[in-house]
Amino acid sequence: SSSSSSSSSSSSSSSITMLSSLSLRPPNPTTVCRLSVSGDDPLTSDPIPPLRIAILGFGNYGQFLAETLVSQGHIIFAHSRSDYSAAARRIGVSFFTDLHDLCERHPDVVLLCTSILSTENVLKTLPFQRLRRNTLFVDVLSVKEFAKTLLLQYLPEDFDILCTHPMFGPQSVNSNHGWRGLRFVYDKVRIGEEDSSRISRCDNFLAIFEREGCEMVEMSCVDHDRYAAGSQFITHTVGRVLETLKLQSTPINTKGYEALLDLAENTRGDSFDLYYGLFVYNKNSLEMLERMDLAFEALRKELFGRLHGVVRKQLFEGEAQRVQSFPNGYQNDASLDMVRSNEVALKYEYDAEVSGSVSDSSRLKIGIVGFGNFGQFLAKTMVKQGHTVLAYSRSDYTDEAAKLGVSYIPDLDDLFEEHPEVILVCTSILSTEKVLKSLPFQRLKRSTLFVDVLSVKEFPRNSFLQALPQDFDILCTHPMFGPESGKNGWDGLSFVFDKVRIGTDDDKRRARCDSFLDIFAREGCSMVEMSCAEHDWHAAGSQFITHTVGRVLEKLSLESTPVDTKGYETLLKLVENTSGDSFDLYYGLFLYNPNAMEQLERFGLAFESLKKQLFGGLHRLLHKQLFGNDKDTQLLLETTGLSTFR
Length: 646
Prior knowledge:
CATH architecture of the largest domain: 3-Layer(aba) Sandwich
Radius of gyration: 31 Å
Distance between the termini: 34 Å
Strand order of the largest sheet: 1-9-8-7-6-5-2-3-4
Keywords: Oxidoreductase
Region (Disordered): 1-25
Number of helices: 26
Protein name: Arogenate dehydrogenase 1, chloroplastic
CATH class of the largest domain: Alpha Beta
Number of domains: 3
Shape: elongated
Number of strands: 17
Largest sheet: 9 strands, mixed
GO molecular function: arogenate dehydrogenase (NADP+) activity; NAD+ binding; prephenate dehydrogenase (NAD+) activity; prephenate dehydrogenase (NADP+) activity
Helix content: 40-55%
CATH topology of the largest domain: Rossmann fold
């Protein structure tokens, strides 16, 4: 009790010291983390001697842990500011409304499940004199140096301290179907080394999590916070920004976008106080926020720098006619105000057998213009299905074509004189218009079907309508996958298409278009018929945002850590996938999708709003430390318009 009261007087100064350290770099790692994974089946491993555990803070997380503790046979007491007696009875926990009564039950372990912001106040109110003098205190906060400092400051010296961080919660456990493989980080800050019973008690508590299959990571509090700022805080920051954007599922979701939707959903389940606590009480978080801010600004400058170069080229090099490629092709940008229906995914009828080769009447002769990675990726499946594939590219891909069973023709005139029924344009967004201008259309049959596979759709639609002869058919498509995401097959992956101009009076031309679409339907693709304008509106909110997040994170040079969460692993995977695409692809998504600029601005505003929330809270906290709740000071500030109180 005396230890508690004597340390209380220094709490204000220690908190200010904690805030001032936000600008400091973390010290070098002082320990090497030790990992272990339990291979035992929870049902067959040796039982753990039952512990008497008191949970302080019996909200969602306290109840979440209590369910497993009770299932393992431990005796659980609980106390909270709110009355959770009904929830406690349901779980099998004894709930105490009076903290003194609980402490007089002499629990072996006191488990602090309070929020980061309330932990210090809780410690100040604890009647330590009611507890046994060697009680083990355990916290589960997401920041560790702060928790360690508080426990050392407020607890009597003969109490044991174990700082822990279960890197999971109710949502991640549900999606993981249990705790197996999830990380549990701990630091034995102060355990009675000369008392074997106290050492055993600590080990028995840790065995609770090891028994459930957790990956046990022993790590100093300093190292934890250094890693967590680069993983957990960044993950929450991205999730908060995405939540502000109010992203929604679209008919053309990519796997990366679905991962971002899941991240935003998981973040929404945590209180802002948790995120704010990660920012204020982890001294490494401010640096990570600043780095993310700089990364986003660098990305914006890169995009706008290129855009400026394009505009200058048009203005000063006499290429004003190229401006026609930028608008969406509708007067007064009417397509931006179109009615956006949620029912845009139309069912594509496909009656052929999924397995086996196509019939002779459905076999196509396809000429691929642009035989890089994506052209080769598509050609492999087309050849497998029995189609005849010809290819041309600026670079010589003769050897690659031969391996795939494709006829490589180095001269475009020669390829077009072979009269392919379909010309599949697999060029980059930035080179498409130039390629179209160079094509010898006169060598083709007059009813040839032209197909593109670009990630933007209004731009190729307008370019095709402008460049192609009137009697050529046009099919705009977007396979929502690539060599990486489609390496294990295309089943269930989305394929978006718009029959822009197909000879309606000619059954053969309609059948040819359907035969081409059957290539993807046969492989199990989810076929989505959608207008080009509708596609670009959805894509700006999904594909462009996904690439933007990936590009920003790539500039941070994120790496895997010993304390990775599932959310952080999702971000690392996103960076890996995004970095595999050229910047030209991302720039093309920005330049040739009329909705992308709005999404970039919304992302920037969401990030700015989040920073204002964080720094506003920090300012109020510092102000309260400096002036307390002095009524005269508060009145003076309010009358001068300088009050920061809420």
